[in-house]
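Much of our argument rests on the idea that a fold can be written as discrete symbols. In the encoding step, the backbone of a single protein was reduced to a row of integers, each denoting a local shape. We regard such an encoding as a compact summary of how the chain folds. The record that follows shows the chain in one-letter code together with its fold in token form:
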Amino acid sequence: MADRLNGRRIAILAADGVERVELVRPREALREEGASTDLVSLSEGEIQSMNGDIEPSERFAVDRVVSEAKVEDYDALVVPGGTVNPDNLRLDADAVGFVRDFIAAGKPVAAICHGPWILVEADVVRGRTVTSYPSIRTDIRNAGGVVVDEEVVTDHGVTTSRNPDDLPAFCERIVREFAQG
């Protein structure tokens, strides 16, 4: 089933501080199923990925700046984690609006680890069951989300996972969810 996402275009929203494996593994899974992906970020150039939030890793070329990106150009959205990445994203009005507009359009959105922070900022967790890295669960609860401690959860088009250990389940689920559209 290596073509479940043929013709699908997926935005990966990330900034400096993104956890490398949480960017690379989902992108590989999506591409293996035929999707094209764009790395969407806050500015042109490259972003710095990290290993475990403290060790600099690869740099990745930005395909599109979020202020110029349009939800209608994409079929789905992935937000990787890392502590610094979603913290940078949630301070940017265009990034927050991009996430909010994806939800409003009814398109699937996925976030892993600290990635759900931008879901909180976009005010889209209210009434949804969500999982995340433990340190942001209070933020999710305070934003009206229902927090569970499971490797992957999908609720009304929003898929979330806790950490890099959950990547196999997360990648399998996002492929399935994005194929259903």
Remarks:
- Residues 120 and 142 are 9 Å apart (CA to CA).
- The longest helix spans residues 167-180.
